[in-house]
Amino acid sequence: MSRGDLTDAQWERLEAVLPPIPKMGRPPRDRRQVFDGIWWRARTGSPWRDLPERYGPWETAYAVFRRWQIDETWARVLKKLQVKADEDGIIEWEVSVDSTVCRAHQHAAGARKRGLTIRAGRVRTASRPSRNDHGLGRSRGGLTTKIHLAVDASFHVLAAVITAGQRGDAPAFEQVMARIRVPRISGGRPRTRPGHVLADRAYSSRQIRTYLRKRGIAHTIPEKRDQAGHRLRRGSAGGRPPGFDREMYKRRHKVECRIGLLKQARGVATRYDKLAVRYESTVQLTLIRQAL
């Protein structure tokens, strides 16, 4: 067994939430070996062709990774682990929201993009539109991708959204909150509403505070200095300052710690996947592996 491979106990927990093996067609390879190979690639950030021989052909590992991304198996497995954690009472519904920027490797920039492309000295329109230009954006450091996370008080990632690196945090807030959806084994509507939300100044806006207030979600978000100054200049018309509990705000460090743990996988810390959906699956795979 190589460093980073699944133990017997971890494989038993993972096998319980994997989709059943199809009865028709050619029998698949050892799924434990294939999963370890896929995880090795995400952990090291190496190209698929450099997969060690002990994990079998690299084409098999990539085919499984791609197929499970297309049929959303990675997302379903991660959801099942969240359901089990919630059923065991592990998930605490105090949610911290934040984002992190990941540098994109030059190998991630080769996919076709929406808009204008240049070929043979001519400008033409790309024939195949892509999803949000594959989540790649231009920042000072070059091509980057941003991961928006919602993390509960027990370090479980309840939602993850991939955007271009230059995208702001506040515009993606409602999309992140909409991704929080944990079904209940006992039946009934899925749990979608946290008990409390913590976020930094990047999320201080009237729209976000109104959104949380309408959903009945308590929140701790510090006010920006310019917003406070503008409110004071308006006098009584500026209204009262938003409530802020400094001691409660200190608990937001858990999302920062979870981001650091997520970036221990080099395939996440540096993006090597050309497509945003592939990179999102790499993030989901890492969350699955760390939850076992």
Largest sheet: 7 strands, mixed
Order of helices and strands: HHHHEEEEEEHEHEHHHHEH
Between the first and last Cα atoms, what is the distance in angstroms? 17 Å
The low-pLDDT segments are 115-132
Percent of sequence in beta strands: 15-25%
Could you say which overall geometry the principal axes of the C-alpha atoms support? globular
Helix content: 25-40%
Strand tally? 9
Q: What is the alpha-carbon Rg in Å?
A: 21 Å
- In round numbers, the mean pLDDT is 85
Organism: Streptomyces aureus
InterPro entries: IS402-like_dom (IPR025161), Transposase_11 (IPR002559), Transposase_6_like (IPR052909)
Protein name: IS5 family transposase
Short description:
The protein is of the alpha/beta class and 292 residues long. Helices cover 37% and strands 16% of the residues. Helix 2 packs across helix 3 (58-70) and helix 4 runs parallel beside helix 11 (276-291).
Give a structural overview.
With 292 residues, the chain is an alpha/beta fold. Helices cover 37% and strands 16% of the residues. It has 11 helices and 9 strands. The chain has helices at residues 8-15, 31-44, 58-70, 73-87, 173-179, 206-214, 225-233, 246-249, 253-262, 266-269, 276-291, and strands at residues 94-104, 116-119, 122-125, 137-139, 142-151, 157-164, 196-198, 218-220, 270-271. The strands form 2 sheets. Strands 1, 4, 5, 6, 7, 8 and 9 form a 7-stranded mixed β-sheet that branches. Strands 2-3 form a two-stranded antiparallel ribbon. β4 (137-139) and β5 form a beta hairpin. The longest helix is centred in the last third of the chain and has 16 residues, at 276-291. The chain is globular and about 75 Å long. It starts with 7 loop residues before the first helix and ends with a helix. Residues 115-132 have low confidence and may be disordered. This is IS5 family transposase. It comes from Streptomyces aureus.
